[in-house]
Every structure is written in structure tokens, then in C-alpha cells.
Amino acid sequence: MNLIYLLIWGTWIIFGISVIWALSWAVDRGHMSNVEEAGRSIFDDEEPMGEMTDFFPGEGPDGYLSRREESNE
């Protein structure tokens, strides 16, 4: 039973060290230098930030089914 605990804790320690190493590597290489700009890079003039333009099929902007979908049910 002690071997199982040792394996579990050892795995978590190795995982934690790997995460810390990967984060420090990314910071040193400059991957975290401009996070805000990278987050805004997916938006363009057709899809402005803060305005929802993607919906599930058949749903309108308020989340309800469109009138055509409601008449079919």
C-alpha cells in the first residue's frame, strides 16, 4: 500500500515540477509577453469584441428558437 502512495505522490511531484518548468520556459522565451493583444487577435471588424455573433443552429441572439423552428415543433 505504501508503494501505491509513493507512486501517486511521486507522479504528482513530477507533474508539478514539469508544469513549473514549462511555464518558466514559456516566460523566458517571450510567449507570455503580450497576452492581452493575443486574446484580441481573434476578433476582427465583422465580429467586434464583447458582441455575441455565434449561436447554436436554430437559435437567435437571445437564445430562443427561431420562429421557423418553433412552428415545426
Biggest beta sheet attributes = none
Low-pLDDT stretches: none
Please write the string of helix (H) and strand (E) elements: HHH
Mean pLDDT: 77
Contiguous helical run count: 3
Inertia-based shape: elongated
Number of strands: 0
> Helical content, roughly?
40-55%
- The whole-angstrom Rg is 24 Å
Assess the beta-strand content as a share of residues: under 5%
Structural category is mainly alpha
Draw up the topology in text:
Layout: H1 2-28, H2 35-40, H3 67-72
Would you write up a description of this structure?
The protein has helices at residues 2-28, 35-40, 67-72. The chain contains three helices and no strands. It is 53% helix and 0% strand. It is elongated and about 55 Å long. With 73 residues, the chain is mostly helical.
Main attributes of the structure:
single chain; 73 residues; mainly alpha; 3 helices; elongated
Précis, in short:
This protein has 73 residues and is mostly helical. It is 53% helix and 0% strand.
